[in-house]
């Protein structure tokens, strides 16, 4: 399976505000961008923020990310495909072979336009030749959003898989919530017009930077949010062997409130990711 790494890369940019007004999401993002970079992601490269619209294939502007306006639709799901593998390594960089450098960044919001921390994002994609690694974990990895609800992934622009347009797979899960499985797409790709799975609502905002590309996409999860203060938890402490701060390896077994679980992905346990709340990390025994 081969791609076309030498295809021309059109310059893709986003337009200015569409005049629909300033949403809470825009204000939150502006405030977060104003913070020093180490407080967000510890990255040295500039962060590319998702625009409200983007030009695709020379046609009318399309929304690249569902605009979070305190009541908009969540990011649409898409099929998992045949090449997902559990137990991917926890990492924010999966540059596992040659190709055009790609930095993907963004935020995860709920329906109330508030960023969500501790969200699991599990990415997988094809290599530069359009092939998936089904033996190891090349171009596969998972990470968690930081305290600002932000994430950043360093990878390469995936090659063209036969019959599909260029895309990146991802599973997104907030603590204690269902998993969103979806795919992200590149604007300006000729195959966007022929791929039956392509959805313009899942277009990233992409721009050329030197010899690489910077992309951005903000996920909106189907999670109701109250703009008021977070209520204080009154749930009694759980029983069992699971403990926050513990580094668990694949196959480790724990008990939580009388139920046994087996670790599916190596990780360090954090509050909010208790076994019954994280089926992506724990499997009931």
What's the CATH C level of the largest domain?
Answer: Mainly Beta
Oligomer: single chain
Number of domains: 2
Dominant shape:
globular
Give the strand content. Answer: 15-25%
What is the residue-averaged pLDDT?
78
Kindly state the number of beta strands: 14
What gap, in angstroms, lies between the N and C termini? 38 Å
Family: Belongs to the intradiol ring-cleavage dioxygenase family.
InterPro entries: CBM5/12, CBM_sf_5/12, Intradiol_dOase_C, Intradiol_dOase_core, Intradiol_RC_Dioxygenase, TAT_signal
Pfam family, one: Dioxygenase_C
GO biological process, one term: carbohydrate metabolic process
Q: How would you describe what is shown here?
A:
The protein is mostly beta strands. It folds into 2 domains: 25-220, Sandwich (Protocatechuate 3,4-Dioxygenase, subunit A); 247-284, Carbohydrate-binding module superfamily 5/12 (Seminal Fluid Protein  PDC-109 (Domain B)). It is 5% helix and 24% strand. The protein has 2 helices and 14 strands, in the order ααββββββββββββββ. The strands form 4 sheets. Strands 1, 4, 7, 8 and 9 form a 5-stranded mixed beta sheet that branches. The protein has a 4-stranded antiparallel beta sheet with strand order 3-2-5-6, with no helix packed on it. It is globular and about 55 Å long.
């Amino acid at each position: 399976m081969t791609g076309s790494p030498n295809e021309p890369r059109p310059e893709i940019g986003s337009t200015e505000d569409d005049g629909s007004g300033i949403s809470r999401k825009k204000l939150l993002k502006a405030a977060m961008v104003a913070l020093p970079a180490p407080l967000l992601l510890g990255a040295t490269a500039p962060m590319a923020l998702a625009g409200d619209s983007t030009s695709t294939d020379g046609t009318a502007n399309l929304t690249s990310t569902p605009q979070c306006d305190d009541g908009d639709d969540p990011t649409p799901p898409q099929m998992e495909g045949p090449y997902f593998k559990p137990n991917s390594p926890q990492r924010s960089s999966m540059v596992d072979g040659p190709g055009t450098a790609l930095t993907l960044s963004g935020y995860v919001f709920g329906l109330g336009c508030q960023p969500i921390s501790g969200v699991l994002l599990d990415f997988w994609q094809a290599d530069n030749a359009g092939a998936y690694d089904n033996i190891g974990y090349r171009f596969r990895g998972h990470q968690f959003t930081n305290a600002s609800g932000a994430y950043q992934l360093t990878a390469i622009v995936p090659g063209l898989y036969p019959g599909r347009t260029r895309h990146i797979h991802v599973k997104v899960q907030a603590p204690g919530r269902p998993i969103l499985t979806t795919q992200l797409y590149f604007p300006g790709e000729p195959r966007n017009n022929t791929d039956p799975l392509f959805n313009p609502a899942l277009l990233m905002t992409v721009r050329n930077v030197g010899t690489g590309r910077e992309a951005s996409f903000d996920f909106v999860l189907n999670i109701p949010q109250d703009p008021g203060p977070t209520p204080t938890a009154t749930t009694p402490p759980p029983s069992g062997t699971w403990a926050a701060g513990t580094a668990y390896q694949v196959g480790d077994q724990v008990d939580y409130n009388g139920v046994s679980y087996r670790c599916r992905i190596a990780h360090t346990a954090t509050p909010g990711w208790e076994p019954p709340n994280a089926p992506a990390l724990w499997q009931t025994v």
